[in-house]
Structures are given as structure tokens and as C-alpha cells.
Design brief:
transmembrane, transmembrane helix, about 260 residues, 9 helices, membrane, mainly alpha, Arp2/3 complex 21 kDa subunit ARPC3, ECF_substrate-spec-like, about 75% helix, two-stranded antiparallel sheet
């Protein structure tokens, strides 16, 4: 990395850290939180490419966990957020044509993994709705989720299931719509490749945090209820990143950074 790239990397690591550390909203039922750090990861990856995006995402997010009282998450976050940033940069940053085939196979694999994951989660929630007909099981889960009635428990499970199903259908349609509608305004920012990269990075984050939480806390059920919140974090981060990038472009602070890696 050149001196210019090191400066950019340091700047974006700091922005990811601040956005993650300062703006924290605890997730109900789990021991995690959502934040605005993903917006800065998207920003770093789109402006400066996969390496700087990955370093900013991994180091900045891990530091926020380390100093924010979530030290147990620092190492998983370092790995998860690095690849999250790298994916966005790999797909969205100007890359050579020979990488197109890699992008296609990664996209196909990501869609297949998400479909399998979504089906598994949906089936798990269906089984859970059957299980809580047993009073003892329902009482145990109500205590874990801090709800007072069985009806509230059923409603919560159904809402999570609906959110995941709707997101699985709506997100691809939104990506296609934005790409077709807005690519004439900016072929780089709204290219199908850029939007796919962001989507895959969000799916990567959701799935890997889910399984990491199972490993750390030894509970398969509760991490499912954090999935909708991670979808909100991903979607919000995408919107915030685009608002910032459009503002920077209007002010002509940044041009598309080529050769910064």
C-alpha cells in the first residue's frame, strides 16, 4: 500500500470505529447491538476498493467491540467485517474484466446459501411454533425472550418469520429496480455489480453472525430473533452510505479513486 492508501485506510478505520462505537442500539432478546458502522464500511469499499474497505471494516469494527464492552466479539467481528468490506469493494470497485466470472460464481453461491439458510430458519421457526404448544417449553422460551404471554411469544416468532420471508423476496427486487432505474445517473454507483456486492456482504454478515452467536452462547433459537435487526442495520447502512457518497460527489471532494490499492 502506498502512503496515500495508508492515510485513506487510517481515516476510514477511524470513521468505522466512531460510527460503530458511538451509535449503538441494543438488540432485544440477544446480547448484540446494531449500529451505523456498516455505512462507513460501504463508503470505504466503494471509494477506495476491497483492501481498504476490508481493513476499515475489520479493524474499525473490532476496535469498537473491544473498547465497547463486547471484547468476546472482537475476533469474529474482525474476520466477518473484513470480508464484508472486501466483498463490497470486489464487486463495486472498478475491477478488471477477468474478475467477471468470479463475481458470477460468488453471486450464484451467495444466492444459493441464502436460500438454503432462509428455508432452514423458516422450518426451525415452524417447528418452534409447534414446540411452544408444550407449556413447559413455552415458559422457558418466554423467560429467555422476556415476554409475558404465550400469545406475545407466538406473535414475535411469526413476525420474525414474516420479516425474513419478505426480505428474501423484496431485497432482490429492490436491487434490480435500482440498477435499472438509476444506472443512467451513475453507472458506477448503481451498477448491478455494485448493488449485488452490497447485498452479498449483508447476507454474509447476517449468516456468519448468526452461527458465531450460536458458537459463543450455545443457543440455536435466540440468534434467529436478531436476524431482522441485522437486516435493518444492513439496509440502513446502504442508504446512509449512498447519501454520503452523493454529497461528496456534489461537493467534488472525491472522484472515483483508481489505483489507490
Amino acid at each position: 500500500m502506498r502512503v496515500k492508501s495508508i492515510i485513506y485506510a487510517g481515516m476510514m478505520i477511524a470513521l468505522v470505529f466512531v460510527a460503530t462505537f458511538v451509535i449503538k442500539i441494543p438488540i432485544p432478546f440477544t446480547q448484540g447491538y446494531i449500529h451505523a458502522g456498516d455505512a462507513m464500511i460501504f463508503l470505504a469499499s466503494i471509494l477506495f476498493g476491497p483492501l481498504i474497505g476490508g481493513l476499515a471494516g475489520g479493524i474499525g469494527s473490532a476496535m469498537a467491540d473491544l473498547f465497547g464492552g463486547y471484547a468476546i466479539w472482537a475476533l469474529p467481528t474482525l474476520i466477518i467485517k473484513f470480508f464484508m468490506g472486501y466483498l463490497v469493494g470486489f464487486f463495486g470497485y472498478k475491477t478488471e474484466k477477468r474478475k467477471k466470472s468470479k463475481k458470477f460464481y460468488i453471486s450464484l453461491s451467495g444466492v444459493a446459501i441464502w436460500a438454503i439458510f432462509g428455508i432452514w430458519v423458516s422450518n426451525t421457526l415452524n417447528n418452534l411454533l409447534v414446540d411452544i404448544q408444550d407449556k413447559e417449553r413455552a415458559t422457558e422460551l418466554m423467560k429467555q425472550m422476556q415476554v409475558t404471554t404465550q400469545d406475545a411469544l407466538v406473535s414475535t416468532i411469526s413476525n420474525v418469520q414474516t420479516t425474513i420471508i419478505v426480505a428474501s423476496i423484496i431485497i432482490p427486487l429492490i436491487i434490480l429496480f435500482l440498477s435499472l432505474l438509476l444506472k443512467n445517473k451513475d453507472k458506477y454507483l448503481f451498477s448491478f455489480s455494485t448493488l449485488i456486492g452490497m447485498t452479498l456482504s449483508g447476507l454474509w454478515m447476517i449468516i456468519t453472525y448468526f452461527f458465531t452467536e450460536i458458537l459463543i452462547y450455545g443457543n440455536v433459537i435466540l440468534p434467529i430473533f436478531g436476524i431482522p435487526w441485522n437486516i435493518v442495520q444492513f439496509g440502513g447502512g446502504l442508504v446512509i452510505a449512498y447519501i454520503i457518497i452523493f454529497s461528496l460527489k456534489r461537493l467534488k471532494i472525491f472522484k472515483n479513486e483508481e489505483n489507490t490499492q
